[in-house]
Amino acid sequence: MPAYQRILLKFSGEVLMGRQDFGWDMHIIEQVADQVKAIQAQGVQIGLVIGGGNVFRGAQVQSTKIARSTADQMGMLATLMNGIALRDVLQSHGVQARLMSAWSMDALAETFNADAAKKALAQGDVVIFAGGSGNPFFTTDTAAALRGIEIQADVVLKATKVDGIYTRDPNKYADAQRLQTLTYEQVIQQDIAVMDLAAFALCREHAMPIRVFDMLKPGALERIIAGKDEGTLVSK
Ligand code: UDP
Fold first, then answer.
1. 164: Cβ below 6 Å to ligand 1?
2. What is the pairing mode between strands 210-213 and 232-235?
3. Which residue's CA lies nearest to atom 12 of ligand 1?
4. What is the 3-state secondary structure (H, E, C) of the chain?
5. For each of the chain's 236 residues, which pLDDT tens digit applies?
6. Ligand 1 site-directed mutation target among 76, 141, 157, 197, most atoms within 8 Å of CB
7. Is the CB of 140 under 6 A from ligand 1?
8. Is 198 in the pocket of ligand 1 (CB under 6 A)?
C-alpha cells in the first residue's frame, strides 16, 4: 500500500532545464515522466505544479514599461509551456495526463476546476496544474499549496536541490544533519525557508503536510511513496 493516496508534487522549472541555462533538457523531462509513471502504477493519484524559472520569471523584467503584474503573466505563461511539454512526454510514456490552466486557454488546456480535477485524479489521470495561481505577485510554491489544498491531497511534495532540511548548510558543514520531521512552529521559530511565506502560511492554516526532498536523487520519490525516511516532513 502506498503511504499516500493523493499527492501534489511541485518542482521548479529549473529542474527541467538540467545543466542548460534555459529551456528544456529532454533527458530530464523523460526522467521526471518515468518517475511519475512509476508511482502512478502503484495507484497514487498525482497532481503536478511546475514552476517557470527555466523560461521566465516576472522579477526578471527590468523595464519600467512592462508592469510587474504583466511580467508575472509572462512568467505564468512559462509554466504553461512546461506543462504542455510534460503532458506530451507523459502521454508518450503511456501515462494519461491532463493539463489544466489557471485561466481559460481553451485551445491549449482545460480551464482549472477543482471538481473536474478531483474526478480526473480519482480515475487515475495525472493532472498538471499550469498557470500558477492565476494571479501576479505569487509564485508556483503558492500555487502548489493552493492546488494541494483544493484537490485535498495528502501531502505537498516540494522538490528542491537539497534532499531535505538540515541543521546547517550541508554544502558548507560536514556535520550538518538532515532533520526527519519539523513542526510548522519550529519552521517559524528557526526561520527556515521551506516554501515562500504565502505558500507556507496556506499549508499551515490548512494543516497540509509538506515534504521537502530532492527529486533528482534516484529512487527518492518512490521511497517517499513507500513510506520510507526521505527528505524532511513539515507538519502539525
Ligand atoms: N507566477 C505568478 N503567479 C503565480 C505563479 C507564478 O505571477 O501564482 C509567475 C511569476 O512571475 C514567477 C513565474 O511565474 O516568477 C514563474 O514561477 P516561479 O518563479 O514560481 O517558478 P520556479 O522558480 O519554481 O521555476
1. no
2. antiparallel
3. 57
4. CCCCCEEEEEECHHHHHCCCCCCCCHHHHHHHHHHHHHHHCCCCEEEEEECCCCCCCHHHCCCCCCCHHHHHHHHHHHHHHHHHHHHHHHHHCCCCEEEEECCCCCCCCEECCHHHHHHHHHCCCEEEEECCCCCCCCCHHHHHHHHHHHCCCCEEEEECCCCCEECCCCCCCCCCCEECEEEHHHHHHCCCCCCCHHHHHHHHHCCCCEEEECCCCCCHHHHHHCCCCCCEEEEC
5. 999 999 999 999 999 999 999 999 999 999 999 999 999 999 999 999 999 999 999 999 989 999 999 999 999 999 999 999 999 999 999 999 999 999 999 999 999 999 999 999 999 999 999 999 999 999 999 999 999 999 999 999 999 989 999 999 999 999 999 999 999 999 999 999 999 999 999 999 999 999 999 999 999 999 999 999 999 999 99
6. 76
7. yes
8. no
The total number of residues shown for the chain amounts to 236
Ligand 1 centroid vs 22 CA: distance in angstroms? 15
User: What ipTM score was computed for the predicted complex, to two decimals?
Assistant: 0.99
Q: Which pTM value belongs to this model?
A: 0.97
Q: Which CATH architecture has domain 6-235?
A: 3-Layer(aba) Sandwich (3.40)
Residue 110: CB atoms within 10 Å: 17
**In degrees to the nearest 10, what's the CA dihedral of 165, 145, 78, 222?**
60
Domain ranges of the chain: 6-235
